[in-house]
Automatic annotation (TrEMBL), chain C:
One of its GO terms (cellular component) is plasma membrane. Its main location: membrane. GO terms for biological process: phosphate ion transmembrane transport. Signal peptide: none annotated. Keywords: Cell membrane, Membrane, Transmembrane, Transmembrane helix, Transport. One of its GO terms (molecular function) is phosphate transmembrane transporter activity. PANTHER family: PHOSPHATE TRANSPORT SYSTEM PERMEASE PROTEIN PSTA, PHOSPHATE TRANSPORT SYSTEM PERMEASE PROTEIN PSTA-RELATED. It is a multi-pass membrane protein. It is found in: Cell inner membrane; Cell membrane. This is Phosphate transport system permease protein PstA. The lineage of its organism: Bacteria, Pseudomonadati, Pseudomonadota, Alphaproteobacteria, Sneathiellales. Residues 217-424 form the ABC transmembrane type-1 domain. The chain crosses the membrane at residues 34-55, 221-242, 262-284, 290-312, 408-427.
Length: 268, 435, 435
């Protein structure tokens, strides 16, 4: 039997606005390499939070802790506390699979399955049994594609391969695929780094719309992007969080010298 | 016996006349399968009824609950069945009334009870929070591990079966005779009371014969294979490569029995006739014929391994040499081949291990008589030829003659294993150097 | 200044010495290149000789010599009681019909020895053909019909040109007297050649002219089915486990090292394993496809595992990540995405492993598949032989006519191997995915 709180992690919260993820003193080790050192950060509901910092600063590592994707790396060890709606997601009774259904993820390189567009989006609902029948599933696929702003481009070729789309379309397909599982939170790991400026603009626009219904955490190496789309920003450096705050404040008047150095382009 | 047949899913009626066991076996299996099928149906139905559905409320799928019930209804009886089968192999007197009762009545009833209990409790436990996925995936995981362990069991089976017979063999024939004796004539050990004393089990002539044929094979395969690989990697155009490489690979795909036929009927006769015309005495079962044909078989093996190894030499080394004005052949001979040497040595060792273990070519084209000679024009015999000779046909199982085959096979196994381990180590070390 | 230039010209790249040297180096380059090309050509020539010698010996196995005789289906011989009873018709002495026809053709031949020679012109299996004719059409009884009968193997060899008429009579298997008879038949147009369908429909026989490979083909088929059913699932499960689920630990390392070494164990050792485990321990039937299949499955397993692992490893991690990111479990990611995507590669490896198993002989000799078996096996536990073993057995037979049978069987075996490998290549080309 699960406690109510544990059930919440998998089944969805009944809380209002406020903190949805709270991390305390998170340390990550890859073998002997101490990749993340004592990171504490709160993520607000229905906001876009961006994680910025130079390459290798641990921002992606941190992101991958939030849905336990790090579990797939053998040598990886995570300590500290990561609470999703008050429940430690590394707790013994949490099923990482159901956690990942609730905390979706979009990757740096678009990675559609080599199947049809329809099957790509339908895969999540199928394995989780979200649809009762074929009509239900069709409906879900179309809604997700619509939410991802892709429906107009693909509605007449739903059954052609997802790998035949352009890079930007593939990435939006991956977002649609994540949305179809009906997550609360979407993690995005540099989702635009492999895209051209026009495709990037489209994805950014999409992220802005999505924040009405979803909590989004995005890792980006582009400070302009962080400034454009996020409400809160955390600056990572050498495996630690240097500064967290409202995006506007962090970019205009950073309180730490290192943050200032980075955003003015002196390193990074 | 029945149980083994059962393990291999064979109708045991083929091998035994224990009709009763067979009769009660199939109906039992069918009943068990029907019970679990009903369990699947009932489990998924109950899951559909019980499990609340809401948009963000993720629970296991109904079919997963069904599978969960099936697992609980099948795993206990399968475990019991294995115990049952193992008990049947134990050399107990099964014809006594009590044992028969257990065999015919107690176990089937226990199986049915176990299934029923599994069904009952698993269906009772169905609720949305039940971690059925863990159970299902746990079982799959166990099956995968069991499959992986089969390869270890194979090795263990080889080692144990060879070792067991070899120890028996050394109980009859002293080790010193086997390893240092110069005389091999197991066929003369015919009188049962004189095994070991009259038959000679000195294996030195077999090992020298094996080495002679292997050496001849290497003399053919290494230069041809290596030079082919060099030409393919460094000179050949892509089109030439695309055509010739598959052609060479055909050599590796031809069954060894075909090579044996070719060696015995064509090459052996050719060398004999050639010898006749030159006035040299060449027997038609000469080591030369078997060796040359074996070398032919190994050419693609050497060439494709060397191909990989030469390809792994970094381009920067080539560029460095060309940049100094070296010609292509100078680069190959002075830079690429020395750099690739350890890898090539590994490849040759692998080829040697193949040649030593090759059976059909020598069985068909080399001699049966043990002959201690280094003359490639005479007939020699090899370890594998003798194994075949000792074991094919009627044999009493515990004679020194039969056991000798296992002792030879053990030596063969150990030698090829060592060659292989050394070769793989050499190649791996070489690869790491250029990674 | 000038001195230096001259000195440079004396030793440098424009000097006469250098240019001479360069010409020498260019020649060395050409020589080296030629050596490489020669090596490849030698290997290909050897392959060509092998194939040519097989085809030139074997093509005639597919045709057969027949002698047409006027057969009188005398009622007095076939059905003396005149009641057309099926059992009586089957048991009748049809050989007498052939003998009578021959006597009629050559009325001058008298004496037991001469007559026996005359009768040996026709295969002693000819009676079964006549029996079949009568059973299909009882109305033949009492009529005289010209029937093309299979000739004896010596006549067949003579007709195909394998027996030299110009040799002295004592050195030749077909004597002058027989030649004379044959010349008479030839002159009357009674000797013909036709496609040898019996080669594909008959089982093995001591008589070359009626020996066929149907038994061996069916045996190979059953054996290969067993091999596939065992080695494919276990191989794929092992590969999935090692690539997708295994954490790095002692057991995994052991399995890994073990698989690499098993791949290099000589095939004959697997035969001894099969002998010790499946025959002596488990008491499965000797010479049966089930045992052969199990033994070959253990031998093929490493090949399939290694190929399957390579195919699974080739699927990029991003696919796995994508599935996990959607909340698929590790197993769902593996079985829904990784496995289907790597299936073409796995199947290619499996086909190649099975084609090796199809050509394998040595391990099967160890488990008694070398027995002479005339019947076509009807199941997995019937005594059977397989194609390579059939080739081995025929290659050992003394009759001249078995040489062409052997080569013919090799051609059929190579045909099957080519089909399997072509299928594997097509599969790879068609489904190959570049990531």
């Amino acid at each position: 039997m699960l406690t109510q709180a544990e059930a919440n992690v998998e089944n969805g919260p009944d809380t209002g606005n406020g903190v949805i993820i709270s991390t305390r003193d998170v340390n990550v080790y890859y073998g002997d390499n101490h990749a993340l050192q004592g990171v504490s950060l709160d993520i607000n509901k229905h906001q876009v939070t961006s994680l910025i910092g130079p390459s290798g600063c641990g921002k992606s590592t941190y992101l991958r802790c939030l849905n336990r994707m790090n579990d797939t790396v053998d040598s990886c060890r995570v300590t500290g506390e990561i609470l999703l709606d008050g429940v430690d997601i590394y707790g013994p009774s949490v099923d990482e699979v159901l956690l990942r259904a609730r905390v979706g993820m979009v990757f740096q390189k678009p990675n559609p399955f080599p199947k049809s567009i329809y099957d790509n989006v339908a895969y999540g609902p199928r394995i989780h049994g979200l649809a009762d029948n074929k009509d239900d599933l069709d409906e879900m696929v179309l809604t997700s594609l619509e939410k991802a702003g892709l429906i107009k481009e693909v509605q007449d070729r739903l059954h052609s391969s997802g790998t035949g789309l352009s890079g930007g379309q593939q990435q939006r397909l991956c977002i649609a695929r994540a949305l179809a599982v009906r997550p609360d939170i979407i993690l995005m790991d540099e989702p635009c780094s492999a895209l051209d400026p026009i495709a990037t603009a489209k994805v950014e626009e999409l992220i802005d719309e999505l924040k009405e219904n979803y909590t989004i955490i995005i890792v980006t190496h582009s400070m302009q992007q962080a400034a454009r789309i996020s409400q809160r920003t955390a600056f990572f450096h050498l495996g630690e969080i240097v500064e967290t705050g409202d995006t506007e404040k962090l970019f205009t008047s950073p309180s730490d010298k290192r943050t200032q150095g980075y955003i003015t382009g002196r390193f990074g | 016996m029945t149980c083994v047949a059962r393990l291999f899913h064979l109708p045991s009626v083929l091998f035994t006349n224990e009709k009763e066991t067979v009769m009660s076996f199939y109906p039992l299996v069918i009943v068990l399968l029907l019970m679990s099928a009903a369990g699947y149906w009932f489990g998924s139905k109950k899951a559909l009824r019980t499990v609340r559905k809401s948009s963000n409320f993720l629970t296991p799928r109904p079919h997963q609950f069904g599978l969960y019930v099936v697992i609980w209804s099948l795993v206990p009886p399968v475990i019991l069945g294995v115990i049952w089968a193992v008990l049947q192999t134990t050399p107990l007197e099964t014809d006594t009334g009590a044992m028969r009762q257990i065999d015919q009545v107690v176990f089937p009833v226990m199986l049915l009870l176990a299934t029923g209990a599994g069904l009952y409790f698993s269906i009772l436990r169905i609720n949305p929070d039940l971690r059925v996925r863990k159970t299902i995936e746990g079982l799959v995981y166990v099956l995968l591990i069991l499959a992986s362990i089969i390869s270890i069991l194979t090795t263990l089976g080889i080692v144990l079966s060879l070792l067991f017979e070899t120890i028996q063999f050394f109980g009859k024939v002293p080790m010193s005779e086997f390893f240092f004796g110069l005389n091999w004539s197991p066929q003369t050990a015919l009188r049962a009371d004189q095994v070991g004393s009259s038959g000679a089990f000195g294996s030195i002539p077999l090992f020298t014969g094996t080495l002679l044929i292997t050496f001849i094979a290497m003399c053919v395969a290494v230069p041809l294979g290596l030079l082919s690989a060099v030409y393919m990697t460094e000179y050949a155009s892509n089109r030439f490569r695309a055509v010739v490489k598959p052609l060479l690979e055909i050599l590796a795909g031809i069954p060894t029995v075909v090579y044996g036929f070719f060696a015995a009927l064509t090459v052996g006769v050719f060398f004999r006739d050639l010898g006749d015309s030159l006035g040299i005495d060449v027997v038609s079962e000469s080591a030369l014929a078997a060796g040359v044909v074996m070398g032919m078989m190994i050419i693609p093996f050497v060439s494709s391994l060397s191909d990989d190894i030469i390809m792994a030499v970094p381009q920067s080394l080539r560029d460095g040499s060309y940049g100094l004005g070296a010609t292509k052949s100078e680069t190959i001979r002075k830079v690429i081949l020395p750099a690739a040497l350890p890898g090539i040595v590994g490849a040759v060792l692998l080829a040697v291990s193949r040649a030593i273990g090759e059976t059909m070519i020598v069985v068909m084209a080399a001699g049966f008589a043990a002959n201690l000679t280094a003359n490639p024009l005479e007939a020699v015999t090899t370890v594998t030829v003798q194994i075949v000779g000792l074991l094919v046909g009627d044999q009493e199982f515990d004679s020194a003659k039969t056991l000798a085959a296992f002792a030879l096979a053990l030596v063969l196994f150990i030698v090829t294993l060592c060659l292989n381990v050394i070769a793989l180590m050499v190649v791996r070390k070489y690869r790491e150097e250029y990674d | 200044m000038t001195d230096q230039v001259q000195e440079a010209a004396g030793n440098g790249w424009q000097s006469e010495k250098f240019i001479k040297n360069l010409a020498k180096r260019k020649r060395a380059e050409r020589r080296f290149r030629l050596t490489g090309l020669l090596a490849i050509l030698t290997a290909l020539t050897l392959l060509g000789i092998l194939l040519f010698s097989i085809v030139s010996k074997g093509h005639s196995a597919f045709i057969q010599t027949t002698i047409t005789l006027d057969i009188t289906f005398a009622e007095s011989v076939i059905d003396p009681n005149g009641n057309r009873d099926a059992a009586e018709l089957r048991g009748a002495n049809y050989a007498k019909l052939v003998q009578d026809a021959l006597r009629e053709k050559f009325p001058d031949v008298k004496g037991r020895r001469d007559l026996r020679k005359l009768f040996s012109l026709i295969s002693n299996d000819a009676d079964s053909a006549l029996r079949e004719m009568v059973e299909n059409d009882p109305d033949l009884i009492g009529k005289t019909v010209p029937v093309a009968l299979v000739a004896g193997d010596d006549v067949d060899m003579l007709k195909k040109g394998y027996i030299d008429r110009s040799l002295a009579e004592d050195d030749r298997r077909v004597k002058d007297q027989e030649l004379a008879w044959l010349d008479v038949l030839e002159a009357e147009g009674d000797i013909e050649t036709r496609f040898n369908s019996g080669f594909f429909t008959n089982g093995d026989s001591r008589e070359p002219e009626k020996a066929g490979i149907a038994g061996a083909m069916v045996g190979s088929f059953y054996t290969l089915i067993v091999t596939m059913l065992i080695s494919f699932p276990i191989g794929v499960m092992t590969a999935i486990y090692l690539e997708e689920f295994a954490t790095k630990n002692k057991l995994t390392d052991l399995i890994e090292v073990n698989i690499n070494n098993l791949a290099a164990v000589p095939s004959i050792v697997f035969g001894l394993l099969g002998l010790a485990i499946f025959l002596n321990f488990a008491h499965l039937p000797r010479s049966a496809p089930i045992v052969g299949g199990l033994t070959l499955a253990l031998m093929t397993l490493p090949t399939i595992i290694i190929a399957a692992r390579a195919a699974i490893r080739a699927v990029p991690d991003s696919i796995r990540q994508a599935a996990l990111g959607l909340g698929a479990s590790n197993q769902q990611a593996a079985f829904h995405h990784i496995l289907p995507l790597s299936m073409p590669g796995i199947l290619t490896g499996t086909i190649i492993g099975l084609s090796q198993a199809l050509g394998e002989t040595a391990p099967l000799l160890m488990i008694g598949m070398v027995a002479f078996i005339a019947d076509i096996p009807g199941g997995f536990s019937d005594p059977a032989t397989v194609m390579p073993v059939q080739i081995f057995l025929w290659a050992d037979s003394p009759e001249r006519a078995f040489v062409e049978k052997t080569s013919g069987a090799i051609m059929v075996l190579l045909g099957f191997l080519i089909i399997m490998n072509a299928f594997a290549i097509v599969l790879r080309k068609k489904f190959e995915r570049r990531w």
